């Protein structure tokens, strides 16, 4: 597995920003129905931007690359990154709106359903990556996902690999992928649904996740990390298979940012030199805190909060 010697704590993330429009209600309406909601909130979101906020709050030096529109939602994006100390490489595209996401949150369970319109970020291409090659070359970890076009994500992984930078690929939302992308991934971090989409293996437990991860290893990934919600996260590689349990930090309010919190925290911990299992524990603790708060980016905890959770006595992992 790629083990870059540069431990400067820098994480470069390629992805999208959207403004989240979150509605809370007792249930989803059916087609043609109008129901009363209990709350509404607007705030920063998008998988890439959420991961950037999570990593920055976790102590990493973060560079985030995206595209936004010349509009009010774009202003929210810029203000968010400035507030969090994130270096933004954000091209402003005239005539195309900044992305937005409709998020439904179930008042009872905190579970969510999301519709994302990527807007300007959906026009990203390989040239956006070429423009930040120097940033990637100077990083410890590179992260990308699939809300922006696949061509941009693939170029980012390729550039990072050429410069000896650790690559973390979050294959979300789920889609079919050509096999040539997998050897570019030191770590791939699907949830159960995404892992099933990539491998055809239905996942109901950790053993199923191991079987799916074996398929991903055969495709060329260095290690697969399958996130399993309340069951934690499974690291599976050619040499070890370790289940890191979830951290339960209070009543679940909203789960929409949990996966992004895990990936951002995992990347930040890798960038400062933690090994993969320690980085997973950090990511699980960060995600465990985030689900106790509303919002996606706003729910991400600070470094000291995560460290307090990690310092509590716990049975932190099981291996086989």
UniProtKB/TrEMBL annotation:
<dbReference type="InterPro" id="IPR002139">
    <property type="entry name" value="Ribo/fructo_kinase"/>
</dbReference>
<dbReference type="Pfam" id="PF00294">
    <property type="entry name" value="PfkB"/>
</dbReference>
<comment type="similarity">
    <text>Belongs to the carbohydrate kinase PfkB family. Ribokinase subfamily.</text>
</comment>
<dbReference type="GO" id="GO:0019303">
    <property type="term" value="P:D-ribose catabolic process"/>
</dbReference>
<feature type="binding site">
    <location>
        <begin position="259"/>
        <end position="260"/>
    </location>
    <ligand>
        <name>ATP</name>
    </ligand>
</feature>
<feature type="binding site">
    <location>
        <begin position="46"/>
        <end position="50"/>
    </location>
    <ligand>
        <name>substrate</name>
    </ligand>
</feature>
<feature type="binding site">
    <location>
        <position position="290"/>
    </location>
    <ligand>
        <name>K(+)</name>
    </ligand>
</feature>
<dbReference type="InterPro" id="IPR011611">
    <property type="entry name" value="PfkB_dom"/>
</dbReference>
<feature type="binding site">
    <location>
        <begin position="18"/>
        <end position="20"/>
    </location>
    <ligand>
        <name>substrate</name>
    </ligand>
</feature>
<feature type="binding site">
    <location>
        <position position="256"/>
    </location>
    <ligand>
        <name>K(+)</name>
    </ligand>
</feature>
<keyword id="KW-0963">Cytoplasm</keyword>
<feature type="binding site">
    <location>
        <position position="293"/>
    </location>
    <ligand>
        <name>K(+)</name>
    </ligand>
</feature>
<feature type="binding site">
    <location>
        <position position="299"/>
    </location>
    <ligand>
        <name>K(+)</name>
    </ligand>
</feature>
<feature type="binding site">
    <location>
        <position position="260"/>
    </location>
    <ligand>
        <name>substrate</name>
    </ligand>
</feature>
<keyword id="KW-0418">Kinase</keyword>
<dbReference type="GO" id="GO:0004747">
    <property type="term" value="F:ribokinase activity"/>
</dbReference>
<dbReference type="GO" id="GO:0046872">
    <property type="term" value="F:metal ion binding"/>
</dbReference>
<feature type="domain" description="Carbohydrate kinase PfkB">
    <location>
        <begin position="10"/>
        <end position="302"/>
    </location>
</feature>
<comment type="subunit">
    <text>Homodimer.</text>
</comment>
<feature type="active site" description="Proton acceptor">
    <location>
        <position position="260"/>
    </location>
</feature>
<feature type="binding site">
    <location>
        <position position="295"/>
    </location>
    <ligand>
        <name>K(+)</name>
    </ligand>
</feature>
<feature type="binding site">
    <location>
        <position position="147"/>
    </location>
    <ligand>
        <name>substrate</name>
    </ligand>
</feature>
<keyword id="KW-0119">Carbohydrate metabolism</keyword>
<dbReference type="InterPro" id="IPR011877">
    <property type="entry name" value="Ribokinase"/>
</dbReference>
<keyword id="KW-0479">Metal-binding</keyword>
<keyword id="KW-0808">Transferase</keyword>
<keyword id="KW-0067">ATP-binding</keyword>
<feature type="binding site">
    <location>
        <begin position="227"/>
        <end position="232"/>
    </location>
    <ligand>
        <name>ATP</name>
    </ligand>
</feature>
<protein>
    <recommendedName>
        <fullName>Ribokinase</fullName>
        <ecNumber>2.7.1.15</ecNumber>
    </recommendedName>
</protein>
<dbReference type="InterPro" id="IPR029056">
    <property type="entry name" value="Ribokinase-like"/>
</dbReference>
<keyword id="KW-0630">Potassium</keyword>
<dbReference type="GO" id="GO:0005829">
    <property type="term" value="C:cytosol"/>
</dbReference>
<keyword id="KW-0547">Nucleotide-binding</keyword>
<feature type="binding site">
    <location>
        <position position="191"/>
    </location>
    <ligand>
        <name>ATP</name>
    </ligand>
</feature>
<keyword id="KW-0460">Magnesium</keyword>
<comment type="function">
    <text>Catalyzes the phosphorylation of ribose at O-5 in a reaction requiring ATP and magnesium. The resulting D-ribose-5-phosphate can then be used either for sythesis of nucleotides, histidine, and tryptophan, or as a component of the pentose phosphate pathway.</text>
</comment>
<dbReference type="GO" id="GO:0005524">
    <property type="term" value="F:ATP binding"/>
</dbReference>
<comment type="pathway">
    <text>Carbohydrate metabolism; D-ribose degradation; D-ribose 5-phosphate from beta-D-ribopyranose: step 2/2.</text>
</comment>
């Amino acid at each position: 597995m790629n083990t870059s010697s540069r431990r400067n704590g820098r994480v470069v993330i390629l992805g999208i920003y959207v403004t989240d429009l979150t509605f809370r209600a007792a249930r989803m309406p059916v087609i043609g129905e109008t129901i009363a909601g209990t709350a509404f909130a607007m705030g920063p979101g998008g998988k890439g931007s959420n991961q950037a906020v999570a990593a920055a709050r976790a102590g990493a030096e973060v560079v985030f690359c995206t595209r936004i529109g010349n509009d009010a939602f774009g202003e929210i994006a810029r203000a968010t990154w400035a507030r969090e100390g994130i270096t933004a490489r954000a091209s402003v595209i005239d005539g195309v709106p900044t992305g937005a996401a409709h998020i439904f949150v179930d008042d009872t369970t905190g579970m969510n359903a999301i519709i994302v319109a990527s807007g300007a970020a959906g026009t990203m291409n390989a040239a956006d990556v070429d423009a930040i090659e120097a940033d990637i070359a100077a990083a410890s970890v590179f992260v990308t996902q699939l809300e922006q076009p696949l061509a941009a994500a693939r170029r980012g992984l390729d550039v990072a690999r050429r410069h000896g930078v650790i690559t973390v690929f979050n294959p979300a939302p789920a889609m079919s992928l050509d096999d040539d992308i997998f050897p570019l991934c030191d770590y791939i971090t699907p949830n159960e649904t995404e892992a099933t989409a990539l491998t055809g293996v239905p996942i109901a437990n950790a053993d199923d996740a191991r079987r799916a991860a074996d398929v991903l290893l055969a495709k060329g990934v260095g290690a697969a990390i399958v996130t399993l919600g309340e069951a934690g996260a499974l690291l599976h590689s050619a040499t070890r298979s370790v289940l890191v349990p979830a951290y339960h930090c209070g009543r679940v309010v909203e789960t929409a940012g949990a996966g992004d919190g895990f990936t951002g925290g995992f990347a930040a911990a890798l960038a400062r030199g933690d090994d993969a299992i320690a980085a997973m524990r950090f990511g699980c603790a960060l995600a465990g805190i985030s689900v106790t708060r509303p919002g996606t980016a706003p729910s991400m905890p600070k470094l000291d909060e995560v460290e307090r959770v990690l310092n509590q006595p716990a049975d932190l992992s099981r291996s086989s």
